[in-house]
């Protein structure tokens, strides 16, 4: 049985299972929802307001409350996180904040990283990536900023055996308990992700560690590195693209 916060509220909900008894649970978990939304905001362009996404996040919370059972043996927060994040990403896709041109540029960036890595045996620096793409550093930063909702840890980067995918966010900050049939494969993927992590520059490794393990906010990380919050946000997006490139190389090699 999973240990629950707000045990009395859960027991009331399970006894009647209606919107009225779900209401107190929704209110109790709103700080949790706001925390997820604020952490996802690093992948949002400046013109997207997080308040506009709050309603769909609450819908994800309500869906999680309806589906959750304590006998599943996991924390409610673990169970609900994917559904809340998924509801937010669905809204972003539905609203199509990324233009067709933006999607084309994102694909070009991923292809350029892949080609550079294959040729040089290492990932490109930002200026090298800009040169390959034929754009200025300012133009590259603008492209990355506009594409941030899709440069996300919620994108599958490794297709597992069977019918499920592996997500970087689940490996970087793993709070799940995989079944016995997934343990060996997860350990193999984690091994390659650790190798990919070590291939990053020292500053890039520190940013990822501080954000995903120490759970510092971007503003706090920016102060530590004497950078602007916007710059740290850009670096985070580029780091994710680099990790995705390296993990895709692993996937291609595994299929051979």
Question: Which range best describes the helical content: under 10%, 10-25%, 25-40%, 40-55%, 55-70% or over 70%?
Answer: 55-70%
% residues in beta strands: under 5%
Largest sheet: 2 strands, antiparallel
SSE string? HHHHHHHHEEHHHHH
The CATH topology of the largest domain comes to Butyryl-CoA Dehydrogenase, subunit A, domain 3
CATH-scheme architecture of the largest domain = Up-down Bundle
- SS field, number of helical segments: 13
First-to-last CA distance:
42 Å
Summarize the structure.
With 256 residues, the chain is mainly α.
Give the tags.
mainly alpha, two-stranded antiparallel sheet, Butyryl-CoA Dehydrogenase, subunit A, domain 3, 256 residues, Rna Polymerase Sigma Factor, Chain: A
What does the model show?
The chain is built from 13 helices and 2 strands. The protein has 256 residues and is mainly alpha-helical. The chain folds into 2 domains: 89 residues, RNA polymerase sigma factor, region 2, helix turn helix motif (Rna Polymerase Sigma Factor, Chain: A); 156 residues, Butyryl-CoA Dehydrogenase, subunit A, domain 3 (Up-down Bundle), CATH 1.20.140. A two-stranded antiparallel sheet has the order 1-2. Helix 3 crosses helix 5 and helix 12 crosses helix 13.
